Amino acid sequence: MEKRLFDDFSRALRFFPCFPCVLVTTDENIITIAMVHIFSFSPPLIGIGVSPDRYSHSLLKKFKEFVVNIPTKELLEKVSFCGENSGRDIDKFKATGLEKEKSMKVSAPSIKDCPANLECKVIKEIETGDHTWFIGKVLSVRVAKDYNKEEAILYWGGLYRIPGKVIARRH
Amino acid sequence: MEKRLFDDFSRALRFFPCFPCVLVTTDENIITIAMVHIFSFSPPLIGIGVSPDRYSHSLLKKFKEFVVNIPTKELLEKVSFCGENSGRDIDKFKATGLEKEKSMKVSAPSIKDCPANLECKVIKEIETGDHTWFIGKVLSVRVAKDYNKEEAILYWGGLYRIPGKVIARRH
Prior knowledge:
- 2 copies of one chain form a homodimer.
- Chain A has 4 helices and 13 strands.
- Chain A is of the alpha+beta class.
- Chain A has one domain (19-161): Pnp Oxidase, Chain A (Roll).
- Strand 13 of chain A pairs antiparallel with strand 13 (159-169) of chain B, so a sheet runs across the interface.
């Protein structure tokens, strides 16, 4: 296998195949985020990476809470819209028709159309390069009874995908 | 859509569909990790989450460097093996037959069989719940000329997958 050295590291980061793509609500705004991961199982912590120039960054700093809403591929256009427009200029709930649902433990609304809603309270903020990672403790989880993770959306390197086929189960 | 409240938050974290699954080398050991993400583009930073009870945790604390090796689905059995066995007990290079390749900027070896190798130096360690996140600055990237991210492995919730089909491109 012949390999070549890459000078443009930022471009090289696109070699990762894909990450889950979620809708994060904070205050009354929605952002589309693929910079999201589980940070701990016990306690259950989820982190989201947000650039300081995003409108939601100021909201997260102010309100210290967010909801991770896992969308389905049927919502792809709304997901894409929320990733390409700023809440400074528009009300994304109104613009997309996504429906608010009262959250259980935080004041930010959940998105009713999304089959999984994980409510988080920010317990730590980490500055790493060009992103702030907000680490949230999970306070409430609501999941659709017919939740099907095969319908989720993945994203990275400019490509939206669905999860691929299962090739093995962990022993 | 009828939703139910989840009491077991750790189990609820399995609702995320999948994350990239990589082989991380540090010192002479290999660990399989799905707790990996890009933390920043400029500077290019990659973070890996490692439980303190893992052998690699002590190696990362000591050597402060690692290589993220992106495997292909052809390596699935070796990837699975490296996730289920500890480097305390065995030499995983010998046990799997994976081949070492000298790295460019760090002393930990790269894995020759993997089409992408991202060498990182730890610049920050973050304690979050039951994992330590080691944030590494990317120092070198080597990628196979015929690299194909469709061949990558994804993992979460006990399931290994391949990336699913592309359903849209970012405008």
